[in-house]
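Technical note accompanying the year-one report. For the benefit of new consortium partners, we illustrate the data format agreed upon in the data management plan: each record pairs a sequence with a structure-token string. No post-processing was applied to the example shown here.
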Amino acid sequence: MLAVVTLAADLACAFSEALAAIDLEALTAAALARARFSPGALLAAGKAAPAMARGAARSLGGVPARTLIVVPRGLAADVPGARVVRAAHPVPDAASVRAGELALALASRKEPLLVLLSGGASALLTVPFESLARERAVTRALLASGASIEEINVVRRHASGTKGGRLAVAAHPAPVLTLVVSDVVRGHVWDVASGPTAPDPTSVRDARAALRRHAPKLVDLRLRETPKPGDRRLRHSRVRVVASPRDVASLVGRALLGRGFAVRVGAPAVGDVAALAKRYLREARRLAPGEVIVRSAEPTVVVTGSAGRGGRSTHLAALVGPHLPPGVALLAGATDGVDGASGTGGAVASRGAFRRASERAVLAALGRFDTGALCEGLGVALAGGPTGHNFADVHVLARGR
């Protein structure tokens, strides 16, 4: 039992060290210096917006006079000279619409525009083609349906005036530089913040198909076509990725290498959380002593009925924990520190830890989507709270030495 406790501590420490090693302020400053771009206005939106804006200020000697920062409520944004708007995430609210209107007004000044984007900005910036109430209903339905982030964002791009390249179109012909901290494990820039400055290769037909699959009662949502690759209005818009989920997985792997483990960074893990749980249990049985598999991850959870304090990381931990082989642990961590509504940052699961709960209690928590309290009660939860990052999740499957 002591060996598994030590293993769990190693995984949690490696995860924390990896997040601490990512200096988004420095990365943004360096990327902006390389781009040799002098903006007249700046828009930063998302969970990493404050750090990215500070990096821009470091590179530029201060932020432009017209600087707008949009962050989720509860996140500090200490950037001198910037106007700060706090809005809701993951379901937009009236402040999200106000922020979207301010962003379009900023772009419409037709001066060189620096845009700093990170995860969460899709909800924080919107000007819906229909009512806010309809956009909120669609967002809730898609989030509960098990739709992938790509499916959710293809709908968002076609349902809002800030997304799918439209912000860059508003700035045309002024140059636009966008620096991105990606939270999308498959790496498409048009999915980060639903691509406000990037051409969109998808169509209204794709968005309508996603609604038919996942929110059929809302399939008549008003949608509009987006600017496509090659659109002349996007000729002066450049998008550069500063950091990505793969970078975090690699840093976790490096931290575990330093602790003497044999590490493999695997391909990103996506798809239904229950299917991922079965996959991890198969892999767990094949791990050699001291072997570790690290992945960036974005699982989906289909929520039926009312939900409690749950999140996809604690849900995965509860699915896997009771069935892991002895000596094996799984860390499922939310890099933003917010695992859904669980109140945690994820969990580190092992069979020994989950033996302290009855099978009935685990199944009940899974059925109620209330796994946060379960993991806290078992002492396997990771501390929650905004980290200033948002790189999706990290999964680490390891066997002790």
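Partners are asked to follow this layout when depositing records. The CA atoms of residues 83 and 117 lie 16 Å apart.
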